[in-house]
Specification:
It is built from 30 helices and 5 strands. The strands form 2 sheets. A 3-stranded antiparallel sheet has the order 3-5-4. A two-stranded antiparallel sheet has the order 1-2. The chain is mainly alpha-helical and about 800 residues long. Strand 1 and strand 2 form a beta hairpin. The relative contact order is 0.06. It folds into 3 domains: about 260 residues, no CATH class; about 100 residues, no CATH class; about 230 residues, no CATH class.
Length: about 800
């Protein structure tokens, strides 16, 4: 076994690509460090805004209390409140002074302020803070004070352990684990292809020695990679002397409770968990390679148990025996407690068991060390009687590995979308908690405002009653304060939301959340004629959902239209308002149809088409240089026009086929996780003008709209995507007909496509732009009608899009077909 290990290690060390790994890590770290350092100060600005608002409120309450003291005097409780406010003012001034200087070491002052505020609300006073969030803030400040730490940048850290955590989540991710598996597979297959196994067999090495000899170096490389990645990631923290920030607390929502977890738990769990996970993948891969299976079958057989483990984790929660938690779904289940140590120890024992169990597999004599058919690149090509040119193209791409690599990328893109959507769905309890607390903050602010008015009204009434009593000596019967009811309503709303927090995690929480949001509807007190598209569409959609007995997507009850998208904000305050509204009505599910909807809504198809052009598609220019295979083809005799048509047909068939296969399989994954979904779910479709009777109209946004089923829009998107492939295929083929270099064909096609897409989106409203095929690459915005609103033209629609793409594609195809000579 030592000979095999030495051979594999020498092959790895002598590889010129081995230095690319640390170089890539250093480049990533430096780039992220520079980016984060230029975008810092976010936390300081947030803290400064928070404490400036508190200071402004305290100053207002102090001036108001002093005014009251001068006019009618203060009771003992009110005097205590004033004293408490004066103490709060002192602490807030100290905090603001430090923040103005860029000093975030405000933990001690913050703790004193929090304790003083709790004393303040214990007397007759006007509460202006959310006590629950203030308690969380106090716990965080106490942990910082305990370790002598200051507040630090959390969103874009660059010189603390939070930056290391950010790097760890990139370097020890499922993507890097998959890349490690591919590198291992490439090394094994290349050596098998070079008949290295025969050489070992001739030297009387046993099966066990050979396979353990291949596995051991990579199992040793895993901790080496962990060490290098960890050292480089910790280097900025070590150089700046901020290693103590490993104790910095991060907020994690567990149900309705927010817990503080120090950063060091991530720094410990991520590399160890990733290392065990990759080692398990390598053991499974080498056992499968022993059975002489193809790389595609190997990836499928490894992906299957991972998918099963992920489905189990999403459907049934956390299990100590599920290895998938080594890379996903570990934060809320493991890090808030010390259970992760037990879990990592158990997974390490599982790895040892797998290594022991692999011994009889490696020791078996069921396989012979010789190049198998799938490893041989010298297998003679025997075409079938029909479609010989298409077979010829497919064999070339297959032998180059382009088909398999493209399929892997497609699974990554579409599967990544499904997993991301499901992870967002799994994180909805945490999102819900944040939204509820944000709403509670709004109620606290409103309550403090109305409480001031209530108190002023009481003071004015008391002063008036005293004057009337002195003059008339009559009995005064006080009237009810009109602001009292409003204050009570604010208190009631806060308490309702507090009770809703306790329901987080329960099966009926989404319904309870929507029911509560309906009671807080901001449109119920507004004249319906003044409702925007969001208000009308939300009411009408809810009616359709109730009528068809469809469960709404979480979280909120409103459908936020594109007119209220945060990107349309006039200023920063308007942006915050729209962003908060959008977050309170996040639409998320985990069904198959919802995953497809998000895939289309994010317009990931553009990236997929780019992958097809870059890796998969073929052109006549590919046959010119450096492989003069066209000379071989044309001597058969086969005309250049027939070659052109066959390549055009191959591109369209392989692109559509791979897209359909990968999309169907990933759709089945989403189907297992969240079911099919509601095919009749009503989706808002925009219109510029009224062309049928059942359209709704909003005078505020000056727009018509109606509802169409989700399935219908997905089918329309599928047809539009096929038209996009048809057009791009013709464009690519024509450019390949005119150019002699295949790489130039790829680059020119991509440049024209992205430039056309950019210009079409920049100048959509120009007359005649509806004829431009590039306008219709914004897939979902075409089928839901929003592009017609942007263009202010009803001609920009799904039907015209398909016609434009197909007609343009047909014309480009004919131009290439009729070209007698190539142009340089």
């Amino acid at each position: 076994m030592k000979e095999v290990i030495d051979f594999v290690v020498k092959g790895i060390v002598k590889s010129k690509y081995i230095l690319l790994v640390p170089f890539a890590m250093i480049l990533l770290i430096v780039s992220l460090l520079v980016i984060n350092s230029t975008q810092s100060e976010t936390t300081r600005k947030e803290l400064q805004g928070t404490f400036d608002n508190r200071q402004e409120t305290v100053n207002f309450l102090i001036s108001r209390a002093l005014k009251k003291q001068r006019h009618i005097g203060l009771t003992e409780e009110q005097q205590q409140s004033l004293d408490s406010l004066l103490s709060q003012e002192k602490y807030l001034y100290e905090i603001s002074s430090k923040l103005d200087q860029g000093n975030l070491d405000i933990s001690l002052e913050n703790i004193k302020y929090t304790k003083e505020y709790k004393a303040y609300v214990g007397s007759v006073s006007i509460p202006y803070n959310n006590m629950n969030l203030l308690t969380i803030e106090q716990r965080k400040a106490e942990m910082l004070a305990e370790h002598n730490l200051s507040f630090t940048e959390q969103q874009t850290p660059f010189n603390t352990a939070l930056f290391t955590k950010q790097l760890f989540q990139l370097l020890f991710s499922p993507i890097t684990a998959f890349l490690f598996l591919l590198i291992f597979s490439y090394k094994y297959l290349s050596d098998a292809e070079n008949r290295t196994f025969d050489f070992f067999k001739v030297n009387s090495l046993s099966n066990t020695a050979i396979y353990y000899g291949y596995l051991t170096p990579f199992l040793l490389i895993v901790p080496l990679y962990i060490f290098i990645a960890s050292f480089l990631s910790l280097l900025p923290t070590l150089v700046t002397g901020n290693i103590n920030t490993i104790h910095y607390p991060i907020e994690i929502a567990v149900g309705s409770e927010t817990m503080m977890v120090p950063v060091w738990k991530w720094l410990l769990f991520l590399p160890i968990g990733w290392g065990i996970f990759v080692s398990l993948l390598l053991v499974l891969a080498i056992c499968l390679f022993k059975q002489r299976i193809s790389l595609g079958a190997l990836l499928a057989m490894i992906a299957l148990p991972l998918v099963i483990g992920y489905v189990i984790s999403t459907q049934f929660g956390f299990y100590m025996v599920n290895p998938i938690h080594l890379i996903v779904s570990y934060e809320t289940h493991l890090l808030p407690t010390h259970r992760f140590m037990i879990y990592l120890l158990w997974m390490f024992i599982v790895l040892i068991i797998c290594l022991v169990a692999s011994y009889p597999v490696f020791n078996s004599q069921g396989s012979v060390f010789k190049p198998t058919s799938f490893l041989s690149t010298k297998k003679q090509y025997h075409p079938k009687n029909k479609w010989k040119l298409l077979q010829f193209e497919h064999v070339k791409k297959k032998r180059k590995g382009h088909v398999l690599f493209t399929l892997i990328l497609l699974f990554g893109i579409i599967g990544g979308t499904s997993i991301f959507v499901n992870q967002q769905y799994q994180n909805l309890p945490e999102t819900s908690l944040k939204l509820i607390e944000d709403l509670q903050n709004i109620y606290v602010e409103r309550q403090s405002h109305w409480k001031v008015l209530e108190d002023e009204e009481d003071m004015e009434r008391l002063s008036t009653s005293q004057e009337e009593s002195d003059e008339e000596m009559t009995e005064f019967i006080p009237k009810e304060n009109p602001y009292t009811v409003i204050v009570e309503d604010m208190e009631h709303g806060y308490n309702v939301l507090e009770g809703l927090k306790k329901e987080i995690g329960s099966p009926h929480f989404p319904e309870k959340f929507r029911e509560t949001m309906n009671t807080l509807d901001s449109y119920k007190d507004i004249d319906p004629s003044q409702w925007p598209v969001t208000g009308i569409a939300s009411k009408e959609q809810q009616r359709i959902l109730d009528e068809k007995d469809i469960t709404p997507w979480t979280i909120g009850h409103s459908w936020i239209s594109n007119f209220d998208d945060p990107s349309t904000a006039f200023d920063n305050e308007h942006y915050k308002l729209l962003k908060a509204s959008q977050e309170r009505h996040t639409k998320y599910g985990n069904s198959g149809l919802f995953s497809v909807y998000k895939y289309l809504d994010w317009n990931m198809m553009l990236f997929v088409l780019g992958v097809f052009i870059l890796l998969l598609w073929t052109s006549i220019s590919e046959e010119q240089r450096p492989n003069l295979s066209m000379n071989f083809l044309t001597t058969k005799p086969i005309s250049s026009s027939l070659i052109y048509v066959s390549k055009w047909v191959y591109n369209g068939m392989i692109a559509s086929g791979l897209l359909l296969i990968s999309g169907s399989i990933v759709f089945l994954l989403s189907l297992l996780i969240g079911g099919l979904g509601e095919s009749q779910y009503p989706i808002l479709v925009y219109a510029v003008e009224k062309y049928k009777d059942d359209l709704f109209y909003s005078a505020v946004d000056n727009a018509y709209f109606y509802f169409e089923s989700l399935l219908a829009l997905i089918l329309k998107s599928g047809v539009l995507i096929m038209a996009q492939i048809f057009f791009l295929n013709s464009l690519f083929s024509l450019i390949g007909r005119w150019l002699k270099n295949h790489y130039a064909t790829i680059i020119i096609t991509l440049i024209i496509t992205f430039a056309g897409y950019f210009l079409a989106n920049q100048y959509t409203s120009i007359n005649g732009m509806y004829l431009n095929p590039f306008v219709y690459f914004d897939t979902w915005n075409i089928v839901d009608g929003w592009k017609s609103i942007v263009a202010d033209s009803s001609k920009v629609n799904f039907i015209n899009g398909c016609i434009s793409l197909l007609v343009s594609g047909f014309l480009l195809f004919c131009m290439g077909l009729l070209s007698g000579r190539k142009r340089v």
